[in-house]
Amino acid sequence: MTQFTNRAQFTKGKLTAFIVLLFLLQGAFFGYGFYQAKEQQAVRIPVASDFLPSFIENPGERVSTEARASYFDWNTDFSNPALQGELAFRGDPLKYTVKSGDTLSAIWTKLGGSVDHAQLAAKAFKAEGVPLSSLRAGEELLLHLNSNGEIAHMRKELSEGRILSLELREHSYHAHILNPEIVTTQRTVTGSISHSLAASALQEGIPYEIIDEFIDLFSGRLEFSRETQRGDTFTVIYDERNAADGRPLTPGTIHAASFMNKGELMVAIRHEAKNGEVHYYDREGKPIGNHFLRYPVQYTRISSLFTNARFHPVLKRWRPHNGVDFAAPTGTPVRSVADGIVEQSGYSGGNGNMVKIRHGDKYATAYLHLSRISKDVRKGSRVKRGQVIGAVGSTGLATGPHLHYSFYVNGKYVDPMNIKLPRLPDKFEPIPDKLLKATLRRLKKHHRQVQLASSEGSQATANG
Question: Do 74 and 178 contact (CB within 8 A), yes or no?
Fold first, then answer.
């Protein structure tokens, strides 16, 4: 009886083990079939992130704008049989941010591409006239990888909204440049200074390029770093340029600009002459800008030239002569060669009576040995091109009446007779009176509006 019981238990145990084994085999069979199906599906539809190195940030993230993603559709025929082997899939474009020190070869190898392909890409760059040095740290490259892990398509932004398109076709890279459709809109911006012109202009969305040009237009009449004050107002009318997909491009022309400082309205109005020459004019219709007169005085002769070694007639020793001496009778009027701000005015030892004028951030001029200085030419005052600032004399270390004229570029002496400067043309087309008056009315209107808004805001704050 005991023997029969043991045999029954053994038979029951074998049956249980067989059933468990059967279930395990069935699960393994279906699991293998499911795995095979998934494997086949993965081969048929590759996933872009499978080919991404870990250092590419947010591989699954879509490109920030639909327009940028659409770069990959421009001028690319993905149905072309020649591309099918190279572009095994089309997913979202990948983003790679160029690092400091990156080269094209380094980028290719980082992304898993071959050195040979990097050399082919470099050759395509050069063939299109794009230097490899154009890779800038921080810029984003948009690209696709193919099923072999090679870069099959890349887009790089160039200047002025142009796009360099690089495509892998038949084991070779081909590059071409896409020129965007440009939309130009005239924009008028008026603002009030709270801290500085640059900060206030940026707050109004004015591009850096326009701010720099605005400052250049008024640099001879106003020193922005010292003379501007809270509440001064400005207006600028310029061309805003964008690609058709909305990408901002380098702004275009300033048509008119104005600045209200201490109650004085200064303007710059653009006019293009029939011969294509462009000048900016002030509110009186006179041309403005850093135009320089050739000579500051009507002289009889040049008595000394600019030189590094001249025997000084008074000191009786050799020393540099950092200027040009114009001999002229005492009392001959001396004129400022350009608009500017008086930096120094008065007696200065061996220089005698002198005036130094700053013409923007780059240029300065000095006028020495004057017999007198005009009363309105004081430190900090503004002078106009051609304005009389004094008269020829022989004060200081001088043997006879003459004007010593010095010229500075970025704080260094240069020869005034040889430097190339923007000159006022002998003849120029005057700005049409109708254009001048209409633009002046427009500029004044904008200044009144911003001043009114500012006063209403101040009143509301006081009442609050």
Answer: yes
